[in-house]
Amino acid sequence: MLGRYAISIIIGSFVTVSLLFVMQLLIVTGKQALTKPRERFSLEFVRVRRNENLNVEDIVPEKPPKPPETPPETPPQDMDNINPDAPKINVAPPTVTNSQDIGGPGGMNIAEGDYLPIVRVAPVYPARALSRGLEGFVDLMFTVTTAGTVKDPVVIQSTSSLFERAAIRAVLKFKYKPRVVDGVPVDVPGVKTRISFMLED
């Protein structure tokens, strides 16, 4: 029991002395830190004077173009000097009819003549042919209807079957002026065309 007290007293004394030593050390170093001169850094600013010499010369605007001369006003007509005995000219009024029949299918005025292409749609290049770098053409035959549309397209010849579907789709979008015989539009079978597929450089 007494041994524990003795050990406790010895350890406590050692800790107390150690703390006093550390405190004394801190006090001494703190005084040195307060009394030691510090290094101070100064910043120097250099102000550049702006050039304030401005061009204050007056800018003379260009003269606007001279407006065109206005023609002289016509003198008013003197109605008092009209001769009432002057000869008169009788002009018959034009004949006006109210007929609204303009002829042709859908109200179109169609004259005599053969069919004529109006709209030609470029085909869409097939993706498979494009990836392989293929070029070619498709020859087709179809019928131009009385309405100017295309029906019954048939492939006659093609360099590759990859182009046929795209060529048919393009031909079906073509528009024509129909053939007119005796004032009546008629179908035109056996019309041939070639759709080419070329890669741009």
Give a quick set of tags describing it:
201 residues; alpha+beta; TolA/TonB C-terminal domain; 3-stranded antiparallel sheet; elongated
Describe the structure.
The protein is of the alpha+beta class. Among the domains are: 1-33; 110-197, TolA/TonB C-terminal domain (2-Layer Sandwich). It is built from three helices and seven strands. It has a three-stranded antiparallel beta sheet with strand order 3-2-7. It starts with a helix and ends with a strand. The relative contact order is 0.12.
End-to-end C-alpha gap: 107 Å
Give the H and E element order.
Answer: HEHEEHEEEE
CATH architecture of one domain, by name, is 2-Layer Sandwich
**Order of strands, widest sheet:** 3-2-7
Structural class: alpha+beta
- DSSP helical segment count: 3
Just give the CATH class of one domain: Alpha Beta
Given as residue ranges, the uncertain stretches (5+ residues, pLDDT < 50) are 94-110
Concise account of the structure shown:
By secondary structure, the protein is of the alpha+beta class. The protein contains three helices and seven strands.
Helices and strands, with pairings:
Layout: H1 2-35, E1 116-119, H2 127-132, E2 136-144, E3 150-158, H3 164-171, E4 175-177, E5 179-181, E6 184-186, E7 188-197
Antiparallel strand pairs: 1-4, 2-3, 2-7, 5-6
